Fold these 3 entries.
Entry 1:
Amino acid sequence: MTLLQTLKNSQVMDNEIQELMVPHERVAHVQLKNPLDHALLVLIKSGYTAIPVLDTDYKVCGQIGKAQILDSILGIERMEMERLHDYKVEDVMTTKVPRLNKDETFGKALMLSINHPFVCIEDDDKAFIGLMTRRSILALIHRYFSKS
Ligand code: AMP
């Protein structure tokens, strides 16, 4: 039996993603209107490459990373550091962000994690409740195969 068949036939694919989620209280995030210098500070202090962008209602609007911020201040001859305070997160972020409802199955999260390091988890009102990361997905698969 292939690895995929084993996963499909097992309970691991039906685990609800909430069980594996990093809860929102532990997620570093920024808001749409934050200046870029604040976003860069959060990214550097947290050590993450990219983090979610939320609005004031705690809804997911996109994601922002260090590379995007640095790219946005790149002038022709120098890094234009003053732009860090002039630009806001909403000017630079990408709105392409993978998201799933909290009641989706682990299988869907697994598929999304192939191309995305994290997936935003939302409740039924589309409010952000946490992240599913590649680490948590791999940890679950590792646990499953260590047992069997
Ligand atoms: P990991 O699988 O733990 O390496 O996480 C994958 C990606 O998810 C990281 O590179 C970050 O972009 C994001 N991430 C993980 N944990 C957090 C967190 N607590 N707060 C914000 N972003 C996170």
Entry 2:
Amino acid sequence: MPILTKAPRGTGDVLPGESSKIRFVESTMLETAECFGFKEIRTPGFEHTELFNRSVGDTTDIVQKEMYTFNDKGGRSVTLKPEGTAGAVRAFIEHGLFNEQMPVKLSYVTPAYRYEKPQSGRLREFHQFGVECFGAATPAADAEVISLGKQIFDFFGVKDLRLEINSIGCPECRKKYQDALKSYFSEKEDKLCGTCKGRLNRNPMRILDCKSPICSEIASHAPVILDYLCDECREHFELVQKYLNAMEIEFTVNPSIVRGLDYYTRTVFEFVTGSLGAQSAVCAGGRYDGLTEELGGNPTPACGFALGIERFMLLLQAENIELPPENPIDLYIASMSPEGNILAAKLASDIRNEGVTCLFDTVNRSLKAQMKFAGKTGALFTVVLGDDEIKAGKAKVKYMADGSETEIGLDDFAENFMQISIGKAVAEFDGGNDFDLSSFLGNM
Ligand code: HAM
């Protein structure tokens, strides 16, 4: 039955081999954010539906078409989170994080769910690394958040990337802009898609974000927000650019960026690439000064971004950027008898306590098959526990790279093995010179 053996459309499995790469990418992003003072937050996978209606906005594509919304068994409407910001803001209010020193800086890696038409780089379940900075209204905060995004791309050596920024103003200047859009789109109302006809009076800016070819063609000639910014918003935007210039972060101003979520004010930005076809935005965000208040908190300026992990992985692949391979198996302990296998289990347990990756036989392979298996796993060292070794209380540990063997006592096996493996690692690092850990430690 295919339904049992096929993951739902738009979702995917991450198999061994790939998972260690994603773990490396995600932890690098969180650690880079930590250098900027961001601390990780984890919020639930689903929230009350109302949270997204109010934050993302009930005229957006996400809320109107893409949310996984259902009634739970208690009859409450809940929604799998389509993005990370709303939950972070809700948690910021719920836990009184506004009482802490501002700015409060939160980072996260989270799954997100949108019922979209799946294609490369566009999934129904995807993952976002994101940051949210609360309590800083200054252009410096916008620029700092953007520079974090840039630093992440630079760390991995991504080349095909442009930063595009825009300002979509505050509710004050937006009012005049909405009026201008309303009169522009009203003249073309009969050509707009059904959804956009509904948006015309409620939120004409959303028409700018419509994916239908006719609406986007009409939108491409619409008035631009930059012509309607109030003095404060214009000054804010100019200062953001000044900070970016000072940090030597290249950007272009793209007045057509409006973002697909309603909560933004002033600065919006996208890191876009030419390497991923239609799904060109890898990382996107902006300022959302009104959202915390909208959700019931005190007025709190905020800004942040989210970066799609799957798109990021595709981008690394497109640019042939290598990631560190999986950790190798350090040691394989082969055994030749039930007694030897019990000893192998004990030694493996001791040595794993030292943080060493160690395997022994749990499927009753012959010695020959065990050694073949050890070879396939790429184990760096092997040791065989035969009757003679058990009797003598000693065994030879073989370094597979050059076949060299060192005899060590089984009583202090873990300690002895650590000495050999560290010695080999340092010797390789040192250009092949022999290394004696005890004399090294003795000389310290
Ligand atoms: P967003 O632009 O909707 O913004 O999504 C951010 C990123 O998530 C996109 O640039 C993309 O890399 C990834 N993404 C979005 N949808 C999909 C999908 N269907 N499949 C794969 N990847 C996808 C937000 O979500 C805002 N919360 C960002 C933000 C944080 N703004 C302020 N703080």
Entry 3:
Amino acid sequence: MHFPSLIEKKRDGGELSPEEIAKVISGFTRGEIPDYQMSALAMAIFFRGMSDMETWHLTKAMLKSGQVFKYPPNSPPKVDKHSTGAIGGKTSLILAPLLACDEVWVPMISGRGLDITGGTLDKLECIPGFNVNLGHRRAIKQLEHIGVFMIGQSAEICPADKKLYALRDVTGTVPSRPLIVASIMCKKLAENLDRLVLNVRFGKGAFMKTRDKAEGLGEAMLRVGEAMDTKISYLLTAMDEPMGRSVGNALEVAEAIDVLRGRGPADVVNLVLDLAARVANAPRAQLQKWLQDGSAWKKFVSLVEAQDGSASVLEGIASIYRAPLIREITSDRDGKITAMDAEKIGRASLLLGGGRQQVEDKIDFAVGISDLKKVGESVQRNEPLMRVHARTNNALERVLPLLREAAVIGDEDHT
Ligand code: URA
């Protein structure tokens, strides 16, 4: 195979054959195709797209780069959810242990931060000791024991996605429909599920800016999933303002813990319940009860302990990662919040150090934005609109203009 010719073929709008796609993915996974060539191909795919057939073969090749989970006979239904990327998205941290309170197994494979959106694995790694790399046998044992695991792609599981995901994160090639479909669906196919719900986001802070594009993405994932013996649905949700009131790794873990303790922002609670109800055996009211009576929290603690994490620090996680500089941004007038731009807030969190700008970058778990006002809430002059958590003065000064622009305040409606 002459790899530069394949890049040129895609660059010029050609269709890659199933054999070419399979060779690209196996060569890349084995390290025979360097990152710079794979990045060029990803950019060509970003601009030229892929047919349904190419997307299916890409997903299949990425799945085949690793193992598929096999379960003991007569084990409970296997269920999961996956999101297409969110600002302040912390649903997985709550939903996985919540679903495991039900008579189901939750074999969740997630990813790291991607572009301006946060990632479940980075958030889990804020918990000291938490191990996101379980092998197949240990993962199955954990399902038998507590009904849930939360892991990442590895040398065993979706290794092609592990490598391509990290490259896309830093090469401007994330918002590509075929690349998102293959990345998500290879992980979900590897989980070998009975039921799957996809949370497809649209709006300012989403990879798909319009509802139509998000619907196209949802439908494309359903088409890839048709070959699976899995009941799949998707839920479209707007991502114009951040989810909840916190953006940034440790800040989001603290907010997720709040929800698991029966508190937390209503938008997060409602979305978790809406998604979980689509794949659970139990009805929504029972799921809500498990959030409020401590069952989901206890399951989360068991999950953290099972994966070598330090559960004793969970409730004080925000203080472990307290950033050296915390600055309030206040309102310059009385009024009502009419917009809280998720894209600007996600970008600010990335610039503060909450995301990667190069593949090898280490994330700063402490930084981010908290206490965000929500659209529709009233504010008074000098009242805080948000708190910015920064490591250095330079970083803080860089993001303040962006964050001031993110909050739009209109007149209070006195009707
Ligand atoms: N989640 C993934 O796993 N991959 C993507 O490309 C986007 C969201």
